[in-house]
Amino acid sequence: MTAIRVLVGTRKGAFILTSDGKREQWTVAGPHFAGWEVYHMKGSPADPDRIYASQSSSWFGQVIQRSRDGGRTWEQPASMDDPVPADDGSGMPRGESNKFVYDTSAETGRPLTTHMWYDGTQHPWEFARVWHLEPSPHDPDLVYAGVEDAALFRSTDGGRSWHELAGLRGHESGPSWQPGAGGMCLHTILIDRDKPERMFTAISAAGAFRTEDGGRSWRPVNKGLVSNFIPDPTAEVGHCVHRIAMHPSRPNVLFMQKHWDVMRSDDGGDSWTEVSGDLPSDFGFPIDVHAHEPDTVYVVPIKSDSEHYPPEGRLRVYRSRTGGGDWEPLTKGLPQQDCYVNVLRDAMAVDTLDPCGIYFGTTGGQVYVSADSGDHWIPIVRDLPAVLSVEVQTLP
Amino acid sequence: MIRVVLPQHLRTLARVEGEVRLDVPEPVTTAAILDALEARYPMLCGTIRDHVSRQRRPLVRFFACAEDVSHDPPDTPLPSPVVSGAEPFYIVGAIAGG
């Protein structure tokens, strides 16, 4: 029987919400990793019971958790439940599943490059946390991590160890990358399902990048983006991309929610055109694509620059059935007065049932579901900690 | 036997309750205690000190016999009550944040 599993990361732990295909009655499990920030959890498409989670705190740093039973139990890879000796011959346990070390210069011991700091000076790369985990579509042991300060790491052993794909950070534009208000984070990783060596990443506030060779080399794909807050509004990098989405059947068509502007590319990011159309605000964080209609797109307009809550206190998801440009508000079941929550960039997802289910979480702790592609919404839960991320697994 | 008190979040990670007791070779120092702790509980690697630099994480503190030894060189011998097990070695998360 079909089931739905929703993976929710929050400021104070992780929650797993489950339902059958009707998506009406829900069971809430958690908190897992209580008291820790869980920026992201995601299941392997190749083995849905394999789930990876990014757990972090300002006190104790980064922890990677892995489940092999659909989130019922968790382990830190290469630790007590998964003992793997270190490579140094000491016989000591590896304990390195949270070791994210940038490639360094043999001369200085520092990362190979620096980036732009808030005051315009150059600053060394400093690891803060994992924002996003993206398991391979085909191999449950292969998973990518997008981190702050912005870089891409890869594990080929189920999260036991991580190695940087330094070609991204080493791009010639790296010294001009700058942190956004939320830090300089690599928050989006899209993998072309049919050609997995082709990937896209997005960095705030550098922009979008594409690789054709599995991450060894990258090129910025930001032509057509305009950001009036940077000295050269059409610069190759420096754009605050909030999120990119792709339908797996159409990997050359990308949708982007930028700091301002909703954008579309029909050539794999080589060029972008604005499709904000009649949205009440072209600012927002998440963007996602319907599972069965590649030109049906969802965004949540947010008032900006400083407020970061829904315009007029009305929480509205906007849907375009035309690939952008023309948008309709979806309000049934969502609060239409006195609502001042935000919806963060990783906090929207879709299932693959028919009709397609749409999910999003808010900084007010609500997780909403629409089981009819956005026409009607119900809250699954109302009072979680602030939601950082939402992912959905459609289980057979 | 050295007694170590961990903050709540690290006790949860290590799946222990109460104090941890460790065999630590002499001289007993902060670095030696952390080496023994991480060998027994590898899930704590990187949570107290950096994997590479071995520097204490900024919001973690070490106490021995009511003294803050966080800024002492990590190879400084610890007081005899800690070495004898009469007093625990405290690893503390800073009181900060929400």
Provide a descriptive summary of the structure in words.
The complex is a heterodimer of chains A (396) and B (98). Chain A has strands spanning 3-10, 13-20, 27-32, 37-43, 51-57, 61-67, 114-116, 122-124, 129-135, 143-148, 151-155, 163-164, 185-191, 199-204, 207-211, 219-220, 241-246, 254-258, 262-265, 273-274, 287-289, 297-299, 317-320, 328-330, 348-350, 358-361, 367-370, 378-381, 387-395. Chain A has 396 residues and is mainly beta. In chain A, the strands form eight sheets. A four-stranded antiparallel sheet of chain A has the order 3-2-1-29, with no helix packed on it. A four-stranded antiparallel sheet of chain A has the order 9-10-11-12, with no helix packed on it. A four-stranded antiparallel sheet of chain A has the order 13-14-15-16, with no helix packed on it. Chain B is α+β, with helices and mostly antiparallel strands. Helix content of chain B is 23%, strand content 19%. In chain B, strand 3 (60-64) and strand 4 form a beta hairpin. The model of chain B has no long low-confidence stretch (mean pLDDT 95). The chains are: A mainly beta (396), B alpha+beta (98). Chains A and B meet through strand 6 of A and helix 1 of B.
Strand line-up in the sheet with most strands of chain A:
3-2-1-29
- Which stretches of chain A are poorly predicted, pLDDT < 50 over at least 5 residues? none
Q: How many domains of chain B?
A: 1
Q: Return the CATH architecture of chain B.
A: Roll
**CATH class category of chain B:** Alpha Beta
Number of strands of chain A: 29
The helix-strand sequence of chain A is EEEEEEEEEEEEEEEEEEEEEEEEEEEEE
Order of helices and strands of chain B: EHEHEEHE
